[in-house]
Amino acid sequence: MSPGRQRPLRPGGPCPPGREAALAALQALYDAADDDSAIGGPDLTRRIFPILAVITEAGFDRLTEAEELSRELVEQRHRKRDGPVASP
Questions:
Q1: Nearest to 86, CA basis, from 2, 74, 43, 72
Q2: Burial 51-74 (b: 16+ CB within 10 A, else e)
Q3: How many of the other CB atoms lie within 10 Å of CB of 77?
Q4: Domain count of the chain?
């Protein structure tokens, strides 16, 4: 397991369900796209956004705010290029 995978995706512990978990997944996707050109992150210019879904005991729930979350992520990364710091 790589050192990055040993830490939670968001500071302060495991990701809660829903919006914060989706934002943490987008952060990971954005970082992966920086490291590997074959992985694409959100593309605001072409309006290409990841499909975000949460799987719970109740089933599959597709999140409709993928564009909103993607724009929020890009704005955050403009302010802090490396994104949030994961806690050990």
A1: 2
A2: ebebeeeeeeeebeebeebbeebe
A3: 16
A4: 1
Kindly state whether residue 27 falls inside one of the protein's structural domains.
yes
Residues of the domain holding 66? 18-79
- Return the number of other C-beta atoms located less than 10 Å from residue 33's C-beta: 15
Alpha-carbon distance values, 78 to 13, 73, 74 (Å)? 24, 9, 6
pLDDT of residue 54: 78
pLDDT per residue, tens digit, the chain (88 aa), is 344 433 444 445 555 567 777 888 888 888 888 888 777 777 888 888 888 887 878 888 887 777 788 888 888 888 887 776 655 5
- Would you say residue 12 lies in a domain? no
Mapping DSSP to helix (H, G, I), strand (E, B) and coil, where does residue 40 land? Answer: coil
